[in-house]
Amino acid sequence: MQPVREVIIIGGGLAGLTSAIHLSKAGLHVTVIEKHSYPRHKVCGEYISNEVLPYLQWLGADPAELSPALIERVCISTVSGKKVETRLPLGGVGISRYALDAFLMGKAVNNGVNLLQDTVINISFVNEQFAIETVANGTLFAAHVIGAYGKRAALDQQLNRDFISRKSPWLAVKAHYQGPFPDGLVALHNFRGGYCGVSKIEDNIINICYLASYETFKNYKNIDDHRREVLYENPYLKEIFSNSEPLFERPLTISQISFSEKEKVDRHILMTGDTAGLIHPLCGNGMAMAISSAQLAAQQILQGQPRAILEKEYTRQWNQQFAKRMKAGSLLSSIFTHPWLSGMSMRTVVAMPALLPFIIRQTHGKPLTV
Questions:
Q1: Span 128-181, pLDDT tens digits
Q2: Domain ranges (residues) in the chain
Q3: What is the pLDDT of residues 103-115, one digit of tens each?
Q4: Is residue 44 within 8 Å of 287, Cβ to Cβ?
Q5: What is the largest CA-CA distance in the chain?
Q6: Cis check: omega of the bond before 39, within 30 degrees of 0
Q7: Which one, of 327, 73, 84, 325, lies nearest residue 190 by Cα?
Q8: What is the pTM for the complete model shown?
Q9: Domain 4-167+257-361 has CATH 3.50.50.60
Q10: Nearest to residue 214, comparing CAs of 277, 174, 257, 270?
Q11: What DSSP line would sit under 192-248, residue for residue?
């Protein structure tokens, strides 16, 4: 029979690897199960707020080692071409998931984390112990399990999570480009039925990632037609795409992106990152939230409290740290994707520029303490 491991983390992305580094740094034996190999591109805005920088440095995983693009300003535009720009309250960095995930994986393995490339097909909890069924490694046992496997997975169906039965009207598209784009800027450009984030990452590469409603997208044969007929209505997006060369053979896409409420602890699994809840990409803060939630999960496990108290406290702290941000993100997305509301809001922000940093702060947190 397999030995009982202290912690198994399902998913080796930002949240999973961050938790693994934190827990292994504290001396726990940690196993990460990730179905894909490293490095790998992912659909992501690839911007990290500096709010998590002190924590990453404490972990020994300073992203400065990867020479990221420094980002200090943000601009927002409407379909009609109205635009406003301001400084980001904390600033951040642009770094690809291709580089960052592989970097964190290396730090985790150097800490003694056991990394398994495998697929989890079911999880059960009996007599205060988890049984994790995998394709290649049979059934593994653990005292604690952290869920960090992303936005939507077959495992969510197996666990019968509530959100999985609700259809989502969103899909996302991402690719890297080479071309002219200002240093230090993250741009959020509205288009009919969605919005697009543009910023630089390492090596002067431009990351373009956008969220589009299926209702708008389904009227076109493919991504190229949708981009030309819909995204190009915004003059800034037309200029960016027209003057940039794609570096991917084809864009990456994901569909059925759900912003529905998710349980933070489900079947006694501590859910982190997008597995616990997905903030609208308009807020540009999903990566920092994933890292922050990983810290919360690791800290609660290290407290060594009874499971019922651990789960209650993790949920409380998650809601305390993120619930208001999630609501603010949902509200901003509703406004930004509504033509009349976005136009009126932009006129208000142009007339009162100090409003934009205030709005940004509603979706970001303070620097993490360790």
A1: 999 999 999 999 999 999 999 998 888 998 888 988 878 888 899 999 999 999
A2: 4-167+257-361
A3: 999 999 999 999 9
A4: yes
A5: 68
A6: yes
A7: 84
A8: 0.92
A9: yes
A10: 257
A11: TTEEEEEEE-GGGPEEEEEEEEHHHHTTSSSHHHHHHHTGGGSHHHHHHHHT-EE-S
